[in-house]
Structures are given as C-alpha cells and as structure tokens.
Amino acid sequence: MKNSKHEEDIGLIKDLMEKSSKFSNLSGIAVIATGFLAIVGASLIYFDIGISISEIHISYAELINQTANPDSLLIKLKLLISIASLILLSSLVLLYVTAKIKSGKEGIKLFNSTFSRTLKSLFVPLFSGGVFCLFLLYHHMYGLVAPATLIFYGLGLVSASKYSYSELEFLGYFELVLGILASYYMGSGLLFWIIGFGLGHIIFGLFIHFKYDQK
Predict the structure, then answer these.
(1) pLDDT in tens, 67-101
(2) Which DSSP letter does residue 164 get?
(3) Please, are residues 126 and 156 in contact by the beta-carbon 8 Å criterion?
(4) By the 8 A CB rule, do 18 and 10 touch?
(5) How far apart are CA 133 and CA 96, in angstroms?
C-alpha cells in the first residue's frame, strides 16, 4: 500500500515537472479547428468556390502565372491576403482562449518562462518568413508564397518542439517537405498548403487530444 502511494506521488511530481518545463497547454480540439479553418479558407481561393467580386472570376493558376489582367489579379491577391489574415487571426484567438482555459484547469500560469521560450522559438522563423513573403509579393512572385509559408512554419515548429510537445518536430518536418515539394510544383502550391496547414493540423490535433487532453 505504501509502495503504491509512493509511486503515485512520484508520478505526480514527474507530471508537474514535465508541465513546468514544457509548454503543453495547446488544445487538440483547437488545433483541429484551425486545420478546418485553413482548409475552408484556402479552398475558397484554390477551387474558386462561390467567389464573386465585381463579377470577376480568375483561377489560382491565373494568379500564379499572371495571365489575367492586372486589375483582376490585384483583386484576387487582396482576397487571398484577406482570407489568410482572417484565418490567422481566428486561429490565434482560438488557440489562446483554449490554452488559457486548459492552463487554468491544470493550475499552471499560461504566461511563464516556458511559454516565452516556445513563443520565441516559433516567432523568429515565422517573422522572418513573413518578411520574406512580403518581398515575394512585392516582386510578383506569387507562386512561391505558399511554399515559403510552409517552409518557414516547419522551421518554427522544429525549433519550438524543444520547449513543447516533442511531436511538433515531426509536424515541422512534414511541413518542410511539403514546402519543398510545393516549390517545385509551384502551380499547386496552395494545394500543398491545404494539406500542410489543413490536414496536418487535423491529424496532429487528434493525436494531441487522445494522447494528452484525455488524461
């Protein structure tokens, strides 16, 4: 009986040490939701689902190859940026709210040193990638934007995995490989983006939910 109690106490101590040394407040359900948001938003652009702006319709391929007239291309580009920004903002709000709730339930402060290290590791590659993508847009190299976001996001995940879920590293490498492939198949870059940010997040979210959230 005493040995059982002793083992239980050791388990609790190890669990607390793990939570304090690594950022583990991501909600699997929230990650899944961000994946669905990415699929819906990117599909609107890639497959031209129900989009009608001033009765102008141009395909993603026309945007990449710049075969439509400049005014139409600019409208499509603005729409793509608007949808991507909305997805990013919604995802960040969702991840923050659910992480706040999860950390409250576990009795751990969300904004701690571990969170800061994780955020810094993720932010540096993402910020660099964001600036790089702005220059790609400036030079009208639209076909490389989706691959670049996958590559820099993958680098950020690999870096952040040292201070968070170790499984983030595998997701990071997955995004990196997709980004490299998307750079070659440039006309299908957004399709790779849908696979990486959409399906990749859904699969990873399911893994986190069943392995960690349901403990």
Answers:
(1) 667 766 777 777 777 777 888 888 888 888 888 88
(2) S
(3) yes
(4) no
(5) 25
